[in-house]
Write a structure and sequence with these properties.
single chain, Mannitol-specific EII, Chain A, two-stranded antiparallel ribbon, 45% helix, elongated, Anion exchange protein
C-alpha cells in the first residue's frame, strides 16, 4: 500500500505497508519494516470500504498494457459516470503518475532532485543519458497520441510530464530485493494507492482488475506482475480514514476467500457480497478490553480456506470459543487431522494398499504396479543436501545398534553370531530392502524380541544336543515360507484394524526401550568406573601404591624389556634371571601384575573420573542435539544457516563432543569395530549346510517355532509400516505392505543360510529416518510458520547408510575415536524424539496438569477429561504388561501380545462411545461394514455374478461418496450426501439448459453469489 506524500509542491507515492499474508508497516522512523502481525481493522473502515465499492468505479477484466493507459481508462470511466469533473483530468492523472518510492529507496528530498523537473528540462538532456526504457516508452506514447482521440490532448500532456516518474522495467533495487524470496511462485500483486489532495471535493474510488497481470515497473517493491489496483483519492483532512480503508482492502485481498471472489467476480454486487461474507466472519474486540496499538503475533495455525467454505449454518457448526460443540485447537494432541470446530476428526481411512483383492498375490501385483512408476524418482529425489545429514545420522544409529545387538547376540549364542555377523547382515539385508522394497524409508535392524528368541533357541538346542545353526536354518526357512504365504493371501489387510491405540502402544514401548537402554548403559559406566568418593585431600601424603614382589622361592624368566635393578647389566639378559634381581618398585601397574607381583597401598584402586566424563559426553550430546535441532526456530542468523545447522544437528553434536573427549585425553570407552572380515567363531563358515547334524524329524518340526518368528516379523514389520505411512507424514508415493513383507521373508531365508541375524523393521530408527527427511516450504510469507510439505521419499539415503555399514570394517581407524557415551546420547535423543507427536504421551502429561493449564487439544473439547484419563490408563496398563513380558523369558510370546492389543481395542467399544473413540483413537473399519446398506441401492454383481465382494462393496461406497450429489441427475429420491461442506456435481451429469446455461450458487448464512460455468 502506497500513500501520497507532499513536500511543498512536489508529491510522490511512498510505500507505507505491505501484505503477503500478514501486515508489515514501515516504522515511524522510516528505516525498517515492522514485525509481521495480524491486521487489526476497525469495523467502521470495512463499512466505508463497502460503501466505496458501491459508489465508486469498478472495472473488471480491464485490458491494460501500462499504468498511464490504466489511469486513462479509470479517469474516463469516472467522468462518464459523473463522479469526476472533466477539468480535473490533468490534476488527477498527474497525481496518480507520480514516482513510487519504496522502503529500500532514498528519502523524498534526495530522490526528487532528478525527477521534479519540467518536460523542457528533460528534453534538453543528452541522448546518452536517457535510459533505453524511457526512450522506448516515449516512442510508444507518441504512437498512442496518434491513435487516441483529440479530446485526450490534455491527458497526453500530463502523461508526457510524468513519463520519467514511472518506469516500465524493474530497476536494480527491485531485482536485488531479497524480499522476493518470501513471495510464492506465480504470485500476482494488488496495489493500493490512497492519498488526500486539495482539488477534490469528493473521494475518487476505483477498483480495477486486469484481464492479464502486467509488470508496472517501479509501482511495486519487487518485480511481481500486478493484477488488481485500488485507488482512493479524497479531499484533504481525512488522511487517517483513507489509510484505514486502504488497509481494509489490502487485508481483504490477502484473504483466501475474498481473493477467490475478486478473481471470479462478474459484477460489482459479487464484490460487495464477498465483503459481506468477510464481515460475517469478522470478530470484534471490545475497545475497553483491547488496545488497538498492540500488534497481534501471527498464529502458528490458521483455519484453512476449505474449512471456512463450509456451507453449514452457524448453529450446526457449534459456537465459538470452546462450546461443547466446538473443536479447534487440533494441535499435536489432536486426533488425526481433525480438530476444527464442530467437525468430527478424520476417519480411519483405509488405503487401496490394504484392500483384500481375493486373488492369488493380488495385493503384491498391485503394490508392484503402484511402485514401478516411482522407481526412477526414488533415486534422483535423493540428491539433496538434506540427504547427507540423514545419512550421517542414521549411519551412526545403525552401527551403534549393530554393535550393541551383535555383542548381545554373541553372549547369547556363544559367539555363533557376533558383531561381524551383525555388521554383514545389517549391510546386506538393509541394502536389498532399500533397493527393492515398497517403502524404502523403513530401516531394518535386529530387535529385542528376536534377541530373546535366539537366546531361548540356543539354550534349548544346547540342552537337547541339537545343532543350533542347522536347527535355526530350518526355522528361518519355514518362517520365510510362511511370510510368502501371507503375502500370497493378502494377509496384510489385517493392518487396517491397527488403530492409533495399537500404533502408539507399540511405538511408545520401543521408544521407552531406547531411552531405558541408553540410561542403563550410562549407569553401568558408574559401576565400571566408580567415583572417587573416599578421596580425602588432607590424607594426600599417605596415598601411595607400590608393587610387591612374589615369594622368593618362585623364580621364572621374565621379559627382557622390563626395568632391571642397577646392578644388572645388559650382558646378563640372555641368561635366566631370578625375580629377586628385578627392581619391583620401577614396574608399572600392568607389568607388576604380569610378572606375578601384587599391589599394596590405599591409592592402588584409584580410577580416573571416567564415569563423570562419560555422563558429560552422554548428556551433552543429547542436549546439544536437541538445542541445535530447534535452532531453525531461533531469531539469530539467516534462515539458510539456521536450517543447515538444524539439519546437521546430530553430526555437529557428535563432532563437538568427540573433540571434547580428545581434548581431555581420558580413556573413555570407545567404539570398537571388527577389523577382520571373518566369522566370530573359527569353527563355522559363512554358509550353513542344512543336513547331516540333526535328526530328520527336526526339519518338519521346525515349523512350530517358526510360527512364532512369523508372527513376530509380521507384527513388527507391519506396525512400523503403518506408523511410517500414516497420513500425518504426507507421503505422496504409494506404499507397499505386501512387497515389504515379501522382501523381509526372502531376506529371512537368506540370512538363515548365511548364519546371519534376522532383520525386521526398526520402529525408532525408521521414525528418526522420517524426521531427518521432512521438508518444509522454502518460501513462506513473513510471519507465517513454514508449512510441512511431506517427506523426501527416496532410496538413496538408506542405500548409502547400509553400504557404509558394510564398509565400516575399513573405517575402523576413524570410528575408534568416537566415545560410546556419545552414541548413547544419540540413542537417548532418538527415543525421546520419537515420542513427539504421540497422542498417548500428550495424554499422559495431562495427569500432572491442572485443568486450567492444559493445552487446548481437540479431544479435550469433545471428550470429558475423566474419560480421556480412563482411556489413557487402559493404554498405559497394556504398555506395562508388554514391558513386563519383554523383560522376562516370556518375551517369546511378545508378538502374540501385540495381537492382543487389537483385541483389547475391540473390547473398548463396550466401554467407550463411538464419539469418544473417534476423538481419542480411530473407529475400527468393521463398524462401517456392519451399517445397514440402503435398500434402494442395487447390489452390483461381483465376479461370480451373484453380488459384489467385500472389496467391491467398499469401492462402490467410495465412488458414491466421491460423486456426492450426482445421484440427483439420475432421479434418486434421497441421495447420500458427503459430510460437511460442499456438494460436488460433475458437469457431465447435471441437467443443462443450452440457452440459459448453468449457474452454481454457493450460499452462506447472509448472502450469496453465483458464477456461470
Amino acid at each position: 500500500m502506497d500513500t501520497l506524500q507532499h513536500d511543498g509542491d512536489e508529491m510522490e507515492w511512498k510505500e507505507s505497508a505491505r501484505w503477503v499474508k500478514f501486515e508489515e508497516k514501515v516504522e515511524e522512523g522510516g528505516e525498517r519494516w515492522s514485525k509481521p502481525h495480524v491486521s487489526s481493522l476497525s469495523l467502521h473502515s470495512l463499512f466505508e470500504l463497502r460503501a466505496c465499492l458501491q459508489t465508486g468505479t469498478v472495472l473488471l477484466d480491464l485490458n491494460g498494457h501500462s499504468l498511464p493507459q490504466i489511469i486513462d481508462d479509470v479517469i474516463e470511466k469516472q467522468i462518464e459516470d459523473g463522479l469526476l469533473k472533466p477539468d480535473l483530468r490533468d490534476k488527477v492523472s498527474y497525481v496518480l503518475l507520480r514516482k513510487h518510492r519504496h522502503q529500500t529507496k532514498k528519502p523524498i528530498h534526495r530522490s526528487l532532485v532528478d525527477i521534479g523537473k519540467s518536460v523542457s528540462s528533460t528534453t534538453n538532456r543528452s541522448p546518452a543519458r536517457i535510459p533505453p526504457a524511457a526512450t522506448n516508452l516515449r516512442r510508444s506514447t507518441e504512437d498512442l497520441r496518434i491513435r487516441q482521440k483529440a479530446n485526450y490532448g490534455r491527458l497526453r500532456h500530463a502523461q508526457s510530464r510524468s513519463m520519467n516518474d514511472i518506469s516500465v522495467t524493474p530497476n536494480t533495487d527491485q531485482l536485488r530485493n531479497k524480499f522476493m524470496k518470501k513471495i510464492p511462485k506465480d504470485a500476482e500483486a494488488s496495489n493500493v494507492l490512497v492519498g488526500e489532495v486539495a482539488f477534490l471535493d469528493q473521494p475518487l474510488v476505483a477498483f480495477v482488475r486486469l484481464v492479464q497481470s502486467i509488470l508496472l515497473g517501479g509501482v511495486t517493491e519487487v518485480p511481481v506482475p500486478t493484477r488488481f489496483l485500488f485507488i482512493l483519492l479524497g479531499p484533504a483532512g481525512k488522511a487517517k480514514s483513507y489509510n484505514e480503508i486502504g488497509r481494509a482492502i489490502a487485508a481483504l485481498m490477502v484473504d483466501e476467500l475474498f481473493s477467490d471472489v475478486a478473481y471470479r467476480a462478474r459484477t460489482r454486487e459479487d464484490l460487495i457480497a464477498g465483503v459481506d461474507e468477510f464481515l460475517d466472519e469478522v470478530i470484534v474486540l471490545p475497545p475497553g478490553e483491547w488496545d488497538p496499538n498492540i500488534r497481534i503475533e501471527p498464529p502458528k495455525k490458521v483455519t484453512s480456506a476449505d474449512k471456512r467454505k463450509s456451507v453449514l449454518p452457524l448453529h450446526e457448526l457449534g459456537q465459538m470459543n470452546g462450546s461443547v460443540g466446538g473443536g479447534g485447537g487440533g494441535g499435536p494432541g489432536g486426533a488425526g487431522s481433525g480438530g476444527e470446530d464442530g467437525e468430527m476428526p478424520a476417519a480411519h481411512e483405509i488405503g487401496e494398499e490394504l484392500l483384500w483383492t481375493g486373488r492369488f498375490c493380488g495385493g503384491l501385483f498391485l503394490d508392484i504396479k503402484r511402485k514401478w512408476p516411482w522407481f526412477p524418482s526414488d533415486f534422483y529425489d535423493g540428491f539433496h543436501l538434506q540427504s547427507v545429514s540423514a545419512v550421517l545420522f542414521i549411519y551412526l544409529g545403525c552401527i551403534t545398534n549393530a554393535i550393541t545387538f551383535g555383542g548381545l547376540l554373541g553372549d547369547a549364542t556363544d559367539n555363533y553370531q557376533g558383531v561381524m555377523e551383525s555388521f554383514l547382515g545389517t549391510a546386506m539385508a538393509g541394502s536389498v530392502f532399500c533397493l527393492f522394497a515398497g517403502q524404502p524409508l523403513i530401516i531394518l535392524s535386529s530387535t529385542g524380541p528376536i534377541l530373546i528368541f535366539e537366546k531361548l533357541l540356543f539354550d534349548f538346542s544346547k540342552g537337547n544336543g541339537i545343532d543350533y545353526m542347522e536347527f535355526r536354518l530350518w526355522i528361518g526357512l519355514h518362517a520365510a515360507l510362511q511370510c510368502l504365504a501371507l503375502v500370497a493371501a493378502d494377509a496384510s489387510f489385517i493392518v487396517q484394524y491397527i488403530t492409533r491405540f495399537t500404533e502408539e502402544g507399540f511405538s511408545s514401548l520401543i521408544s521407552f526401550i531406547f531411552i531405558y537402554d541408553a540410561v542403563k548403559k550410562m549407569v553401568g559406566a558408574f559401576q565400571y568406573f566408580p567415583l572417587n568418593r573416599d578421596f580425602k585431600p588432607d590424607d594426600i601424603t599417605t596415598y601411595r601404591c607400590q608393587c610387591v614382589a612374589p615369594d622368593a622361592v618362585n623364580t621364572t624368566l621374565f621379559n627382557t624389556s622390563a626395568p632391571l635393578a642397577p646392578n644388572i647389566t645388559n650382558s646378563s639378559l640372555s641368561d635366566p634371571v631370578n625375580l629377586t634381581a628385578l627392581d619391583w618398585s620401577q614396574l608399572s601397574k600392568k607389568e607388576c601384575l604380569k610378572y606375578g607381583g601384587s599391589l599394596l597401598g590405599p591409592s592402588c584402586k584409584f580410577v580416573p573420573d571416567l564415569a563423570l566424563m562419560s555422563f558429560i559426553l552422554f548428556f551433552g550430546t543429547y542436549s546439544m542435539t536437541l538445542t541445535l535441532k530447534k535452532f531453525k526456530f531461533s531469531r539469530y542468523f539467516p534462515t539458510k544457516l539456521r536450517k543447515l545447522v538444524s539439519d546437521f544437528s546430530i553430526f555437529l553434536s557428535i563432532l563437538m563432543f568427540v573433540g571434547l573427549d580428545g581434548l581431555f585425553g581420558l580413556d573413555t570407552p570407545k567404539l570398537r569395530v571388527p577389523t577382520d572380515f571373518k566369522p566370530t567363531r573359527v569353527d563355522r563358515g559363512w554358509l550353513i549346510f542344512p543336513f547331516g547334524k540333526n535328526p530328520w524329524w527336526i526339519y518338519p518340526a521346525s515349523a512350530l517355532p517358526a510360527l512364532l518368528v512369523t508372527i513376530l516379523v509380521f507384527m513388527d514389520q507391519q506396525i512400523t509400516a503403518v506408523i511410517v505411512n500414516r497420513k500425518e507424514n504426507k507421503l505422496r508415493k504409494a506404499s507397499g505392505y505386501h512387497l515389504d513383507l515379501l522382501w523381509v521373508g526372502l531376506l529371512l531365508g537368506v540370512c538363515s543360510f548365511l548364519g546371519l541375524p534376522w532383520y525386521v523393521a526398526a520402529t525408532v530408527i525408521s521414525i528418526a529416518h522420517i524426521d531427518s527427511l521432512k521438508m518444509e516450504t522454502e518460501t513462506s510469507a513473513p510471519g507465517e510458520q513454514p508449512q510441512f510439505l511431506g517427506v523426501r521419499e527416496q532410496r538413496v539415503t538408506g542405500l548409502i547408510v547400509f553400504i557404509l555399514t558394510g564398509t565400516s570394517v575399513f573405517l575402523a581407524p576413524i570410528l575408534k575415536y568416537i566415545p560410546m557415551p556419545v552414541l548413547y546420547g544419540v540413542f537417548l535423543y532418538m527415543g525421546v524424539a520419537s515420542l513427539n507427536g504421540i497422542q498417548f504421551w500428550d495424554r499422559c502429561k495431562l495427569f500432572l496438569m491442572p485443568a486450567k493449564h492444559q493445552p487446548d487439544y481437540a479431544f479435550l473439547r469433545h471428550v470429558p477429561l475423566r474419560r480421556v484419563h480412563l482411556f489413557t490408563l487402559v493404554q498405559a496398563l497394556c504398555l506395562a504388561v508388554l514391558w513386563a513380558l519383554k523383560s522376562t523369558v516370556a518375551a517369546i510370546v511378545f508378538p502374540v501380545m501385540i495381537l492382543g492389543l487389537i483385541i483389547v481395542r475391540k473390547m473398548l467399544d463396550l466401554v467407550f462411545s463411538q464419539h469418544d473413540l473417534a476423538w481419542v483413537d480411530n473407529i475400527i473399519p468393521e463398524r462401517e461394514k456392519k451399517k445397514e446398506r440402503d435398500p434402494r441401492t442395487p447390489r452390483a454383481p461381483g465376479r461370480d455374478g451373484k453380488g459384489g465382494g467385500r472389496g467391491t462393496e467398499r469401492r462402490r461406497r467410495r465412488r458414491r461418496r466421491a460423486a456426492g450429489g450426482a445421484a440427483l441427475a439420475h432421479g434418486e429420491a434421497e441421495p447420500r450426501l458427503p459430510p460437511p461442506s460442499v456438494i460436488k456435481i460433475p458437469s457431465d451429469l447435471a441437467q443443462t439448459d443450452p440457452q440459459n446455461g448453468i449457474h452454481c450458487i454457493a450460499r452462506k448464512r447472509s448472502s450469496s453469489w453465483s458464477y456461470p460455468l
